[in-house]
Design brief:
With about 170 residues, the protein is mainly α. About 70% of the residues lie in helices and about 0% in strands. Among the domains are: about 1-75, Four Helix Bundle (Hemerythrin (Met), subunit A); about 125-160. The chain has helices at about 1-20, 25-45, 50-75, 85-105, 125-135, 140-160. Helix 1 (about 1-20) packs antiparallel against helix 2 and helix 2 (about 25-45) runs antiparallel to helix 3.
Length: about 170
């Protein structure tokens, strides 16, 4: 329980750091820390596959993409003027309305209890996920693999240079 509380505290602080950081690179680094703490929460819930995918896809690939875009844009005081007061008020109002909607949606929710007789500790394991993917969902899994193969071949064909083509 203390590990859960510590991870929750770090996740909340790093999420606040994402929003409140003035430097966009620091904001991305706080977001990476948030993803790592969420992956640790997945590990506590015995969902190893989700934790690994969260780290590989989000903390790895997506954050590298964000960093490249931020560095490519080269934001500074000259190119990025200060936001007007109306934009700050609009952001605060829309954030407050989102909080109001979430509170209204979760107002009557009662959490389900824990039943030790029906608990399956192997529910989040990768081998169980693989069995479900290859037995019940084999057709959608194969169709997704064909779609990814077609996208890969298409990107190679688009990136292929023809003889005599000029490079700019």
């Amino acid at each position: 329980m203390s590990l859960f509380l510590f991870l929750s505290f770090v996740a909340l602080l790093s999420a606040l750091g994402v929003v409140l950081a003035k430097n966009p690179v620091h904001s991305v680094l706080f977001l990476i820390l948030t993803f790592f703490t969420l992956s640790a929460h997945y590990l506590l819930l015995n969902a190893q596959f989700l934790a690994a995918v969260n780290i590989i896809v989000y903390a790895g690939a997506i954050m590298v993409l964000f960093l490249f875009v931020i560095m490519f844009l080269n934001l500074n005081q000259d190119t990025e003027p200060h936001k007007p007061m109306l934009a700050k008020v609009a952001a605060t109002v829309s954030g407050g309305l989102l909080l109001l909607v979430m509170v209204a949606a979760l107002r009557n929710v009662e959490p389900a209890g824990y039943n030790a007789d029906k608990f399956d500790s192997q529910i989040g394991m990768v081998d169980r996920l693989g069995m479900v993917l290859f037995q019940q969902y084999s057709l959608p899994f194969e169709l997704a693999s064909i779609l990814l193969l077609a996208a890969m071949v298409g990107s190679v064909m688009l990136g292929k240079r023809e003889t005599g083509e000029r490079n700019f």
